[in-house]
Amino acid sequence: MDLCVFCLAVVGKSYIMAAIAESANEKGNHVLILAHRNSLIEQHKELFENLELNNNLTRIESVFTEVRHLGEHGKVDLIIIDEAHISGASSYRKVCEYYNCKRVLFTATPSRLDGKPLDLADVIVTGISAKELIKRGQISDYDYYAPNLDVDFSDVRKSCGDYNTQDLENKMSAKKIYGDILKYYKLLGKDQQAIAYCININHSKQVCDMFNEAGILAKHMDASTPENERQEIMNEFKEHKFKILCNCNLISEGITLPSANVGLLLRPTLSLPLYIQQACRVLTPVEGKKAIIIDYVGNVFRHGMPTDDREWSLSSKVKEYYNENEDGSFKIRICQNCFSTFETAPVCPYCGAVYEPTAIEIQNIKEIQLKKVEEEKERKRQEIMKRTAEKVKNYKNPEECKNFYELVEMGKRFGYKPGWAIIQAKRLHLYKK
Ligand SMILES: [Zn+2]
Fold first, then answer.
1. Quick one: pLDDT at residue 155?
2. Cβ neighbours of residue 126 under 8 Å, at least 6 residues apart?
3. Spacing, Cα 293 to ligand 1 middle (Å)
4. 174-213: per-residue pLDDT in tens?
5. Angle at 357 between CA 353 and CA 362, to 5 degrees
6. How far is the CA of 353 from the centre of ligand 1 (A)?
7. Topology agreement, domain 4-127 and domain 133-321
8. Where are the domains positioned within the chain?
9. The pTM is what?
């Protein structure tokens, strides 16, 4: 059985799903399309209607409904799963096991949020890179800012492979931090419509209040917000009736909000897929748009740029990202003048400010230089020892040695203990400390 995952950055998934379903239907095969959010299901149904693909051979279903009604709609020959990075969930597993047929899984980030293998698939197919999609105008280009809020996350506990959300909330709830969020939104977000990705419901509501108190209209929604209310909020957002949409985890995947120009990353995460899903959500292309991502929590230093090329794998985690070049300098630097992020360069390519390496970066560079000096010393020492060993190869007695190193090599040759060379050196007045 051939199973595969399609990894197609942010665009085009629904159309490919439709094309695959259509071709399977033409051969008389029954297709089941699964998603986990109603909004995604609605989107797919609408597209199938627009493409006039309505027939009784394809069903579009919520995985939660399907798992309670297995087999009730007859046979299934092909399962298509949307947003498959969550396909490790038991409901998906049960449905797949029950029908035991071919599967095609779709996601922009073929890696589970918890980093475990995506074992519902055995082949991975990678689509066009995000960088290429930007070039083609299929996703929007963006400016990435990472202002430093001066929060230390190093002592935050970990739960289920990511940061503990309660610890994060405690860290991010200081008054000064809220002030900085507002300050940098005004400065860098330029008053445009934004989606704020928060830590949890409580944090999202607080961020929402903070914007409203500052006179910038904001609304909050989360998974417990009733579906019709959620829809209304999204419609109002699309109609520009308010500026900031605050949420936690809800708008990470599958929801298209083209009018959002700015992404506010307020949740530090160790999950690469979560980071990419959130950061890229504002890249839905609109004529003339250049999106803005404001990363308040340094996710870029944990994972690199959201559109970097990555080697995805079904069996293991994506290679861990280190924000360091070989010489210890940072791969991604933040301009202290305009807060833009850029790849290692002496001068900010956006505003021309000279880059001053941070204290940590200077320390890194020094340590690596020191290490290099030590390595060079060691290399030279090894070379001398090798030459010396060559010289003493034919010596028969210690009197022939001209210096301490020759005695050491000679001792080694005869298998003497290290003390032998010292005793001989003292005797022959060749001892050097
Ligand atoms: Zn700059």
1. 93
2. 7, 312
3. 15
4. 888 999 999 999 999 988 999 999 999 999 999 999 999 9
5. 165
6. 5
7. yes
8. 4-127, 133-321, 364-427
9. 0.77
